[in-house]
Design brief:
The protein contains 9 helices and 8 strands. It has 232 residues and is of the alpha/beta class. It binds 2'-deoxycytidine-5'-monophosphate.
Length: 232
């Protein structure tokens, strides 16, 4: 396929815990595309804010912090690695502290500006499956395919609890449910780049779908769009 600049972008947006990461990763692997987890970038920034004790209301402090921060994503040994100022933070960005604060940090306009620039730069010349909250609406409004994932809250909570248990972390379904609802509210209600389902996004409700089915739907949509582009 001929590459445009950026390449073919699959934008996957949706609510917290709706299966974006699993679907995006597996679809990217199957299509031979690169994978970008923009939530991981917001999480890395949140870790930096927490570690430095910067107040997100301190505009000058946040501007300084953003200038002094470097976030790198790399794909190695079948896994996405996240580096913050060259330090591996792949696990550190998944703690409850980071998860509990990331929606606040990601609502800061200066944070979003920096992430958007980085995400667009990283996409140049690459075919990409990119997941987040504002990918189809703001970061890549010309994406070749936009998918919006959603899922019932009880099902999302059950999946999250099972994932955490697998990783040896204990948590209750009640607190996971409360956290999911809170993050959805903050992500959809913020002023800058809120989570929205744009009109040209394909809605995928994953409540009753298996991962395999989700991935197959995304991949066949991509193949169909690519075939149309080749013909045009
Ligand atoms: O996908 P995730 O749960 O790892 O994302 C963490 C947070 O980052 C999420 O609560 C909202 C924010 N986020 C965002 O605002 N915009 C994105 N493109 C990706 C994530």
């Amino acid at each position: 396929m001929k590459l445009r600049e950026p390449g073919f972008v699959v934008a996957i947006d949706g609510t917290a815990g709706s299966g974006k990461s699993t679907t995006a990763k597996a679809s990217a692997r199957r299509l031979g595309f690169d994978y970008m987890d923009t939530g991981a970038m917001y999480r890395a920034m949140t870790l930096k804010v927490l570690e430095t004790g910067t107040r997100i209301t301190d505009k000058a402090g946040m501007a300084r912090l953003l200038r002094a921060t470097r976030i790198d994503l790399s794909w190695c040994k079948g896994r996405l690695w996240v580096k913050l100022d060259r330090r591996d933070v792949t696990s550190a960005i998944r703690t409850p502290e980071v998860t509990g604060y990331v929606s606040e940090v990601s609502a800061v306009p200066a944070v979003r500006d920096k992430m958007k620039v980085e995400q667009r730069r990283a996409a140049l010349g690459r075919n990409l499956v990119c997941e987040g909250r504002d990918i189809g609406s703001v970061v890549f409004p010309d994406a070749g395919l936009k998918v919006y994932l959603d899922c019932d809250v009880p099902e999302r909570a059950a999946r999250r609890v099972a994932e955490w248990r697998e990783d040896g972390m204990r948590t209750s379904r009640t607190s996971v449910t409360a956290n999911l609802r809170r993050r959805d509210r903050l992500d959809s209600g913020r002023k800058v780049a809120p989570l929205v389902r744009v009109a040209d996004a394909v809605l995928l409700d994953t409540t009753m779908l298996t991962i395999e089915e989700q991935v197959e739907i995304v991949c066949s949509l991509v193949r169909r769009r690519l075939a149309l582009m080749e013909r045009a």
